[in-house]
Amino acid sequence: MADSTTRNEKKHVVIKFSGDSGDGMQLTGTLFSNLSAVLGNEISTFPDFPSEIRAPLGTLGGVSGFQVHLGATRVYTPGDDADVMVIMNPAALKVNAKSIKKGGIIIFDVDTFQPADLEKAGFSSENPFEELGLSETVQLVPAPLTSLTKKSLEGFGLDTKSVLRSKNMFALGLVCYLFGRPIEQAVHFLENKFKKKAAVLQANTKVLVDGFNYGQNIDASISRFQIGKSTNIEKGRYTIISGNKSTAWGLIAAAQKAGLKLFLGSYPITPATDILHELALRKDMGVITVQAEDEIAGICTAIGASFAGDLAATSTSGPGLALKSEAIGLAVMAELPLVVIDVMRSGPSTGMPTKTEQTDLLQALYGRNGESPVVVIAASTPDNCFDYTFAASKIALEHMTPVILLSDAFIGNGCALWKLPKLAELPEIKPNFAKPEMKGNIRVTSRDEDTKVRYWSVPGMEGFMHRNGGLEKDREKGAISTDAKNHQTMTNIRQEKIDNIVRFIPEQKLEGNPDADLLVIGWGGTHGHLISAVNKLNNEGKKVALAHFNYINPLPANTEALIRKFKKVIVCELNSGQFVSFLRSKIEGVSFEQYNKVEGQPFTVAELTERFTKILEEK
Amino acid sequence: MADIKYTANDFKSDQYVRFCPGCGDHGALTSLQRAMAELGVAPHETVVISGIGCSSRSPYYMNTYGFHTIHGRGAAIATGVKVANPELTVWQITGDGDCLAIGGNHFIHSVRRNIDLNVLLFNNQIYGLTKGQYSPTTTKGFASKSSPFGTVERPFRPAELTFGARGTFFARCLDIDVKNSTEAMVAAARHKGTSVVEVLVNCIIFNDGAHGWIASKETRAERTIQLRHGQPMLFGNNNEKGLVLDGFSLKVVTLGENGITEKDILVHDATTHDSTLHNLLANMEGPDMPIAMGVIRDVEEETYNEAVHNQITEVQATTTIRSFDELIDAMENWNM
Question: B335 vs chain A: nearest CA distance in angstroms?
Fold first, then answer.
């Protein structure tokens, strides 16, 4: 492709595609992200869509967006504000008006900016850009996407609906041109996507190429971007993966490593359902998925499979976790391995199902009757959902306990580059099976006296029969017991077993400046934003460190010592202060500052740096 | 393995059975242990799952693998066990509250899926362990601690619920009739798919005599009909009474009266897919009609556990992806 004269060399660019939920913005964004990654960029994506499948056309509630951050250097977040926006209708403009950068570019479908459309989106004048105060600060690129798509597909014999559905491809073609993406590669992606639908492929390819050519034709009037290949990335084979998919992959890897079958009992719930989808596809790997009649049956079928000797998991989101509480307690009492995945969303109750939050932490830690300790782990990026799901499975199997893995809508739906692992390079998993010499002489409560881990024997094993259950058991005999002292002993053992796991997890890492004036603490899916803010301030000569937690219960052994090294500590969470209250209950005498947000949206790097700067300035 | 002969004692655990003296659960438990001995499945390949309630204590008394779980969820947990390892013989013991109130959803869905479970529903029409509240099978008007003025609720009929959920097996037996109960349980275990056995049990403390109409051995032959596949539907002390269809209803006739001979009597077909007649039989009530006992429905259909594993086998026969590394390689990937 001939290189144009006006190329903007950039290290980072943020692009947002936004339109009606039927406009195909998710597909457009995904294709563009994949294309960029294949060409050597680092990427981080953020799909932000409504829970309605098709909200009324052209309304604010129906706006669906997909943001991607491309980089020639490390990319940690999908970015705060966009450099480039592709806007399919006035509603999308209105929803996104505050998140376009000064000097940014808005490409918009001028065909949809008719008086009726403007009114539907709540504009009162005929110039929405002026109304939003954007006309002076951004570069506007009006493009008749609808009419050009119609023209492009003339003679294809498609109905109007199908024609209109293709306009996202016109936009994609245009953006490909602006970012110097070879159109052949984009066509190749489309071929993969529509392998089995020849007619759809043909139409989409035509529109895509026409969009690209349109860009060439209007070349002089728009800025173009050049983002180089990322050079500081570790060499290797890469793919792009969402957090939910890498979670599913983590379970598969763990089952193979442990030599067990994988069983998922689950019930559809946003934003966790993709984990069920991915595993339902994996009959080739022998994965059993049961789409249960409800959340409770989801976890209960998994507990049954665990009792029978599988690596068992259940996947859900906050409301589902609430329904599973009693069954998690059973797994605690029966001391069975179980992985409970909670892809957190905005709550309480149904809340905002497609929006992200970290508001289930205390539910995960404490949301059960009785003294009922479980392991709680949080993944922090789409790609490390794999690692922490693997770790959760390993701990569950080796320590005979339910493990709650916290993910969230942001990292579950978001995508990142993933360096392909090899099974052989992953840690061993050795389930705590009863040893053959124990035959005929084992009780349901027999355990390793050092780690307090119960021995696992499963139906079919001769000479290991036992009765398990939710009633308290006699420590020695394994029979049901209401003995007062025994209950205290068993309560202590169950707690000690979880506490002991601290010996098997890594120490808490510190990122940024180890001699920092301010320690930032975070956990889970906020890592990208927090490390971006911390790096930014350190680059400005300030001294900031980040302790980002993945192991929450038990906390890493060095947690207290690490935190006490710093004079100022701030805990940042997408909730009203759940982790900080947990830390306060564990570490006395530290004055924790807080930064909390409960808007259903991730942090922005800007708001974090502003807050951190303010604290640093305080005496 | 097949050569080993088991006795009922091989299935008894060392635990003291804590059902109340005179409770119908004692008889039901005895029948189950005898049925297990007759089936000859090794104790370590047998699993007994239960929820919560008096009957749900049963796993502790069985020398098998056992799991006493949480209220109402036995069906879901048993589903997980059976699907994870279809080689196991899985029994689920449940009561009318556990199975039909808190666990009603799991019950109908396990029946609908036709998972190869043997469900023993101990129906005493009362909550025993919580000390005497009415259950979903309690007769309307019954005064209990939670219905001091009589219940205003219409009860479930477990058979009707089973058929409504497209159940493939239903049998009914009486706690104190160990011979016929054992026979029903053996048939349930031999049936592939969800087998529901409604065991009519007496709660001597909170609902004594709930099944009193058929409790007495002297009148039982007159008040019940023991159904057997392929046999004419005859009952009575001398097998002198029978069932015929009268329009869309069943009717009791007497042999020799009005020219009725054995040829006119319905022959029981438990294997017919159409559950209409099974439903009529299961819904018969005294005093005008005999209570239907024995195997009322026993139909072959693919089980869920088979279907799940067949699908896996089919996919695995043609796939090129056989390991985690191959799975990862099959994704679009590139060098960076």
Answer: 5
